[in-house]
Amino acid sequence: MAGPKHSCGIVGIAADADVANALYTALMVIQHRGQESAGISVFDRDTIETVKGDGLVDHAIPKDKLESLKGQIGIGHVRYATTGSKGYINSQPLVVKAAGATIGVAHNGDITNYPQLKEKYMKEGRTFLTDSDSELILKLIAKHRVSQGGPVEAIRAAMGELDGAYALVILINDRLFAVRDPYGFRPLCIGKVGGGYMVVSESTAIDAFRGELVRDLLPGEICEITKTGFKSYPMEGSHPHARCMFEWVYFARPDSVIDGIEVYQVRKNIGKILAREHYVEADLVMPIPDSGRAHAIGYALEAGIPYEEGFMKNRFVGRTFILPEQKLREAAVSNKMIPIKGTVAGKRIVIVDDSIVRGTTLKILVSMLRDAGATEVHVRIGSPPIIAPCYYGVDMKSRDQFVATKLSIDGIRKLIGADSLGYISIDGLVEAIGMPADELCLACTNGKYPTRIDGEEYRF
Length: 460
Ligand code: AMP
Prior knowledge:
This protein is an alpha+beta fold. The protein has 16 helices and 25 strands. Helix 5 crosses helix 6, helix 9 runs antiparallel to helix 15 and helix 11 crosses helix 13. It is globular. The site of adenosine monophosphate (AMP) has 16 residues, from helix 13.
């Protein structure tokens, strides 16, 4: 599919004082949702001013430029993209002047009908500066503002054309809107923070301000956020929901609460269910830090096996997952994680991680544990086998990337060199999240997609 993949983080704040610093702080808290670029836009007197750049928040938004941003209403973005689609041009927020207004948008998710819509509008003579679906969203809102007048009507009309995953924060001049797509793929919640209101991808950012989580946006809901509250424009009629299970399994921070369900608790539940589904006698349970930590705690509790930290992770090494070549990924994994020999030598070990995509991480780490003297290594995985691509914003793009489409479970066990391998079942995962299966998107594990995608099975 054209266009960059991204599962980013977004934030918007309306307050009774300048918001740039608070936006910056919130972006730092949701930095895990994207490390490729970051940006902030605020409305100042009669226009929207933006500071954005490549890299982590503190690199992308230099302090002196941050201080130059004045305004009591604004939005921010951290971007997670694959290797091919980095670059300033695709960093967000995106801002245009159109039909007498300045409009800024920050987007989390992927629009599945982006290629079709882009082609349609290019035929009508519209130009696109980026290969980002967020630009399309911006242009649709601008276009509908001309015909629809009011901002809520314009956003609603744009939503009528868009398919796929989008959590949005939008500035239209000095007004702040938040939108969650009708499926509710990506999280978005509203909180009360000192002097105003915040809308943000993850509730932990509200906690960082010692604020109060008010509620999640409903799927399909538009909210206008002001410094004194927010006004809701819920979606009319019913619509199927498809919240991304991977937010709870891997992507979100454990201290966030999504749609009323705490991420840490879900991961612990997953570990407990894994222990029931795939118990094995062992001397210790350990996580792959940091992604498998809460899952491993749950496993250890349920199995009654001691929990230990058996790997030290170098937190200064960046993401290994997106490196372009297998050799680079392998080298990076072994530089990133070192076993604690005294903990693992002579032990039967259960090691827990959230997911296997290519199998790179585990293949290396299992062999490192053996070199460090582990006598048995049993691998337990907190998501069912990943067998189908994500079109909704998680960087898992093509079937040939997934080891589980090429090998049986025993084949994967052999590849990673484990004594046993157990994945949580789909039913077990649904139970761990505690939401009905038909409210969730499980497409990467069952190949059934909640939106229509060429060549893929439609769920409904
Ligand atoms: P792999 O080594 O290719 O099997 O990837 C699995 C590892 O990468 C696990 O430790 C996951 O925590 C992590 N992971 C899974 N999905 C993603 C993703 N979309 N982006 C970054 N890391 C991921």
